[in-house]
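Q: I have 109 residues here and want to know how they pack in 3D. Can you give me a structure?
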Amino acid sequence: MNVPIPNVYHPAGTLVNDGSQVINTIPGSTTGNGLFSQINTGPYSDPWNPIHLIEERLRKLETENKFLRLKILSIEGKFTQEEVTNIRKMLISEDEASRTLAESIIDNA
């Protein structure tokens, strides 16, 4: 038994004879690409993007915190200016081992 689909108005204001098209369209648009296309394009296309941004910001803040702790330690006289310069270079180094060593030096001071 076929049930007739009632006439429905599309959000863009046009009459639609197929009720499924009302759900599967972009509001205010006549392209009919569907709701899923909104998820796959635009700011929500990569769900991990905000997490990467937060991790990047966290790394930056942790490094800044290490610099501030190093500055405090140099003011307290724990390190000479030459040692501070070397530890600072180690913190901004591309080498993971150098950064880890610099962090442990600061933490143990």
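Q: Anything worth noting?
A: The mean pLDDT is 74. The two ends are 82 Å apart (CA to CA).
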